[in-house]
Amino acid sequence: MGLERIVAGACHPPFPVYAHLADDLAAAHHADNGERDPAVAHVLATCAGYAYSDADTVATMMTRLGLDANACVRVTQTVDAMFIFSTAYLIQSRCGRVVILCYRGTEPSTLGNWLGDAEVDSESSTLSLNDGTHAIKVHGGFHRNVRATWSTVLGELTLALQGRSLANPDETVESPLQALYVTGHSLGGAMAVLFALKVAGTREYHAVANKLCAVYTFGQPMTVGGPLPLVADEVGRRLFRHVTIRDLVPALPPAAWGAFMHFGKEYRYTNGEWQRSAVPVAQLTGIKEIPRALAAFFATTTRRASYSYTVAEHGPHHYLSVLRPNGRVTEFGDWP
Description:
Elements: E1 2-7, H1 21-27, H2 38-50, H3 55-65, E2 71-79, E3 84-92, E4 98-103, H4 111-118, E5 126-128, E6 135-137, H5 140-148, H6 150-161, E7 179-185, H7 187-200, H8 206-209, E8 212-218, H9 231-236, E9 239-244, E10 265-270, E11 273-277, H10 289-297, H11 301-304, H12 316-323
Parallel strand pairs: 4-7, 7-8, 8-9, 9-10
Antiparallel strand pairs: 1-2, 2-3, 3-4, 5-6, 10-11
Helix pairs in contact: 2-3, 2-12, 5-7
C-alpha cells in the first residue's frame, strides 16, 4: 500500500479559475434541487482527468481551479496477479470543509488494468450492504479495486471528519469535513459509484455518507446488476453521470458478459450542450462495435463521423473540453 501526502502552493494570475471555490463547493447541492452544477462538473472533470498523473500535478491543478494550499493525499495499491491497480486521491480544502475523493480510471498502458475491467464474474462480484439488501451483483474487477484501498480511504475521511489536516494529521484545520464529493473518469467513475453505494448502504459509514454531496462521473461504464438495492435511490439522487454520445464505454460491459445497468441522473452532450436524458445508455448487445470503436480512433475526421462509437470520445481531455463553462480559462490559463 502506498500513501503520499503533500501540500499545494499558492496560485498566480490568471488563476484561480473560480475565486471562491471552497465556499461554492460547500454550498452546492445542499439545496438538493436534483440538478447538476456546471462549475462543479468542470472542477471534478479536471480532477478526474489529472488523476492519471501524480500527486503534485493533481494538487497543482486543483490549486489553479481555486483550492489553494490544498492537502492532497494519494493512496495506491497494486497487485498484478489480482489485476488490482487502485489509485485514489483525496483533496482537502485549506479550511477543511471540502474533500474531493477522486478515483483514477483505467491506465491505457497497463494491460492488467484492462484485464481487470474485463473480469466481470469473480468471487468479489457481490457488494454486501446492511440497508435491507443482503448483497448485490457488481462488476468484480471494479469492486476489487475499490476494496483494495477502501480502509485507507475511509481512514483519511475519518481524519477529515475530525477536523484533522490530511497533509499532517497531527495538525487541525479550521473546520471538520462538511462537503464530500466523489468523482472519477471511466473505471474511476465506476469505483466512485461503488464507493457511494457502500458508504450509503452500511450503517457504520453513515458519518461519511451524511457528508456526501454528490457523485460526478465521466464516461463511466455500468457497475451494478439488477435488482438495484434500496440505497440506489438515495445515491441516485446525488449521482450525475456525464456521457458523450459516441463514447462506447458507458454501454459496457456488453450484455454477453451479463446484465448490468446504469442508475442516477444521466447527462449527454448533444448539439453543443449538456442535456438531461430520460433514458440511460443501453447496454451493448454485441461485441462487434468494440473493435470498430478502436479502429475509429485512427480514422480520418471525415470517416470517423460514420462510426457509431469511437474511443476518441472517451478520453478525459475530451470530456474536460466540453465541460468547461463559457468565460472560464482552462487549467493552463488559456482563454477559449
